[in-house]
Specification:
four-stranded parallel sheet, Rossmann fold, alpha/beta, single chain
Length: 132
C-alpha cells in the first residue's frame, strides 16, 4: 500500500473539514497522507479532472467523494479509468473518516475500501418515536 494515496474530493471546501477531523481524531497524517481537493465554485468538470490527473500521477489514488454521481465522484471515476488504476468511494461520512485511523493496519487497498464502506454503512442509524 506504499503508493496508495487518499484524496478527499468534495464540492467546495468540505474536504478540508474531513482532513481536519481525521487529525482531530488522532490519526497520524504523516502515515495516511490525505489530500483535500475541493471542486471550486466556478471550476469546470474538465479542469477539475485535469487537476486530479496531475496530483494523482505516480500513485494509486483512493478518491473518497461526497455525493454519488456528483462532479467530484464522476471526475474521480474518469481519472481512474484514464490512469488504469485506483479506487473511488462515494458518500463520505464521519464513521468512514474514523476508520481511516487504522490505515496502516490494512494489508491491501481492497481491504481498506471494504472496511471504509462497511463503517460508512454501519454508521448510519435511525431514531424515531412511534405514535402511541
Amino acid at each position: 500500500m506504499n503508493d496508495l494515496k487518499i484524496f478527499f474530493l468534495t464540492h467546495g471546501t468540505l474536504c478540508n473539514a474531513f482532513k481536519a477531523l481525521l487529525e482531530y481524531l488522532g490519526a497520524d497524517l504523516s502515515v495516511i497522507r490525505p489530500e483535500s481537493v475541493p471542486l471550486n465554485e466556478n471550476e469546470s468538470a474538465d479542469d477539475y479532472r485535469k487537476r486530479l490527473l496531475s496530483i494523482s500521477s505516480g500513485c494509486t489514488p483512493l478518491f473518497i467523494t461526497d455525493i454519488p454521481g456528483g462532479t467530484p465522484d464522476n471526475c474521480a471515476k474518469r481519472v481512474i479509468t484514464e490512469i488504469g488504476k485506483g479506487y473511488s468511494i462515494s458518500g463520505i461520512n464521519v464513521p468512514m473518516i474514523a476508520e481511516l485511523i487504522r490505515f496502516d493496519s490494512f494489508k491491501s487497498p481492497e481491504e481498506l475500501t471494504e472496511a471504509l464502506i462497511r463503517s460508512g454503512k454501519n454508521g448510519i442509524r435511525e431514531f424515531y418515536l412511534q405514535d402511541r
